[in-house]
Design goal:
The protein is mostly helical. It is built from 15 helices and 4 strands. It has a single domain, classed as ABC transporter involved in vitamin B12 uptake, BtuC (Orthogonal Bundle), CATH 1.10.3470. The chain is 69% helix and 7% strand. A two-stranded antiparallel ribbon has the order 1-2. A two-stranded antiparallel ribbon has the order 3-4. The termini are far apart. One of its GO terms (cellular component) is plasma membrane.
């Protein structure tokens, strides 16, 4: 039972990342009809927003500390972050400690602007081009963004630790009646799952209950008719591209303590996220979320030792095997709509 609970938690953790990235992908495809292979790079840039804020907050200058001396008895030179002088050492340490959650404030405008610039500057020219052209140009853009990050931040992973208060473990065993420390799980991963759930619910609420979202959904169903009503649907779709980029960026920010950001992390998630989108159904937002969590849980259970002992390596291919089986029985995916990507 404890193994089942732990693997379910692992699955929800992985599924959270898959669902968030796939949700942004589906938003872009559902509104603009663009297959965006640069979406994984947006996830990676979000993670580096956390790294960037951490570096900014720890910028320091050298001062002479008269209270400390070296082995010769001379006052020592120490590096003091500027934030200590602005807010005091105690508050400054707290701000640095919480730099990852605070990076959300930085990531939202950065990712929205980046998404709008991408859509207006490049992707809008490929709306009516074949999907193969869209894949090539967005994949090339992903490589360019990846190399830019590599140039400025280097090739090695850069740690972005979670706040000390959220860096421990949560004892599920004690909560469920098991012995203490029987079932423990990293607290930050639970925070990531809850954060993902909030973002997913917020996106669905925005599309379902706001006038802007209702117009966007109408445009997704019949773009021409909405345009004939005098609504600038292209402008709204551009904004949705920015929102989708922000969703991917926020997923990356909060994932930074789980997997230290590196320049190729976007590519690591890209293929899986597209599999999630296809399994869920192209253009289906509920399908993307459902498939993300389902495939995350399946991958987690396939990683159990009792499974890999019988089927070595199954954890690396189970997502693709399930995708093949689902597409053989349901070619449009779990919740796919008729006519999407069907010529």
């Amino acid at each position: 039972m404890d193994a089942i609970i732990l693997q379910t938690l692992n699955g929800l953790d992985k599924g959270s990342a898959y669902a968030l990235i796939a949700l942004g992908l589906t938003l872009i495809f559902g509104t603009l009809g663009v297959v965006n292979f640069a979406h994984g790079a947006l996830f990676m840039i979000g993670a580096f927003c956390a790294v960037t804020l951490q570096k900014i907050l720890t910028l320091s200058h050298t001062v002479i500390d008269e209270t400390r001396t070296d082995f010769l008895g001379n006052p020592m030179k120490v590096d003091v972050p500027y934030i200590y002088e602005w807010f005091g050492e105690s508050t400054g340490n707290a701000i640095i400690d919480w730099s990852v959650p605070l990076a959300i404030i930085l990531a939202i405008p950065v990712m929205i602007v980046l998404g709008v610039v991408m859509e207006r500057g490049l992707i809008k020219h490929f709306y009516k081009r074949p999907h193969a052209d869209q894949i090539l140009v967005t994949f090339g853009l992903a490589i360019v963004l990846q190399e830019i990050v590599k140039y400025f931040y280097g090739a090695n992973p850069i740690p972005a630790p979670a706040p000390d208060a959220l860096d421990g473990v949560f004892d599920f065993g004690a909560m469920l009646g098991f012995d203490a420390n029987t079932i423990t799980y990293p607290l930050w991963r639970l925070v990531y799952f809850l954060f993902s759930a909030v973002i997913i619910c917020a996106v669905f609420a925005f599309l379902q209950f706001t006038t802007f979202g209702m117009v966007v959904r109408a445009g997704m169903a019949d773009r021409e008719t909405v345009g004939l009503l005098g609504i600038n649907i292209d402008k709204r779709f551009t904004i949705m591209f920015g929102i989708a980029a922000a969703v991917a960026g926020l997923a990356g920010v909060m994932y930074a303590p789980i997997n230290s950001p590196n320049y190729h992390m976007g590519m690591d998630f890209l293929v899986i996220s597209f599999v999630v989108v296809v399994v869920g159904g192209m253009g289906s937002l509920p399908g993307a979320v459902l498939a993300g969590f389902v495939l995350g849980i399946l991958e987690a259970f396939a990683s159990m030792t009792v499974v890999t002992d019988f089927f070595p390596g199954i954890n690396n291919i189970v997502i693709y095997l399930v995708a093949v089986l689902i597409l053989l029985t349901r070619p449009r995916g779990l919740l796919g709509r008729k006519g999407v990507m069907e010529d």
